[in-house]
Write a structure and sequence with these properties.
This protein is an alpha+beta fold and 198 residues long. The protein has 4 helices and 9 strands, in the order E-H-E-E-E-H-E-E-E-H-E-E-H. The chain folds into 2 domains: 138 residues, Molybdopterin biosynthesis MoaE subunit (Aldehyde Oxidoreductase, domain 3); 35 residues. The chain is globular, with a radius of gyration of 27 Å. Heterotetramer; composed of 2 small (MOCS2A) and 2 large (MOCS2B) subunits. GO terms for molecular function: molybdopterin synthase activity.
Length: 198
Amino acid sequence: MSAEEKNLIEILEEGHKVDVVKYIDYVSAPQAGAIATFSGTTRDMFEGKTVLELRYEAYVPMATRCLSSICTTARSTWDIHKIAVAHRLGPVPVGETSVLIAVSSVHRADGLDACKFLIDELKASVPIWKKEVYTNGEIWKENSEFMEKRLELAEKRDSIVKKTVVEEHRRRGCCGSKVRVEEDEEHKDITGDNKSSS
């Protein structure tokens, strides 16, 4: 069974609930001594506001590709057997699951670390958007993980650009290693070291 066949990735259309047992059963295997799961559910309060439901939208083809890539990265980092990722679209009432991640592994540490990585990366980079609906209004939410990742990527990009500019300047510059400074013979001692002329 290839690594691709050991991943179950589903973006569930509106009206379909996350069947937690289905995904845990999928990752179960005799060689797996651990199954780590994360279940994200709609809570009833956020910053003092009463939440009625969350509503999710996604660019499904890209979301699926991103999740597949994240699973590949997890597999290359930890010794894991199977991965299941499910995310609902549409309204998700209070108390219901919107996202589930299940990871099976021989040992718990790999499963737990991979599970945390998968949910963090999902929230930071997968094109799934959330609207929080309150008793007194609604708002599209931007994940803090997404913003942190954008800042991190911008800092890396800026660092790479600066490094490239500096390297290019050094390579093409009129100074630096291309200029050879001839030392005045009277300022050298017999060992060849420079002497101060003060």
